[in-house]
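Title: Request for sanity check on Endocuticle structural glycoprotein SgAbd-2 prediction

Description:
We are preparing a figure and want to confirm that the structure record we downloaded matches what your pipeline produces today. Could someone re-run it with the sequence below and paste the raw structure tokens into this thread? We only need the token string, no images.
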Amino acid sequence: MKLSIVALAFLAVALAAPQGDKKPIEIISSNSEMNADGSYSFDFESADGTKVSESGNQKQVGPKPEDIGTVSKGSYSFTTPDGVVLTVNWVADENGFQATGDHLPTPPPMPEHVVKMLADLKAAGLL
């Protein structure tokens, strides 16, 4: 029993060891700021071209005084294996998380009959 536990421990250590000759990616710049009012910002860039930036602050997001939340916005970019730089800009607030980027899919336009139906429902006071 003890031998199998020791063998499993050695196996776990072997599997956790770094595979191949991958080296850690160097962080070439890093900044962060945290303020007493709850606002913050940070950004960093790594040697492989990855960039991350975020800022946020406290905001009243509901009718009650205790309905305070953090709203944030930021972006990140990275280079794909085929050399294309992709950037995502995002906002996270009382409306949820919304990300935009040229490479992200977008919904197709709403069909005309649906637009008309919604306008008719709104005009009838049903929406």
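Thanks, this matches our download. The chain has a mean pLDDT of 87.
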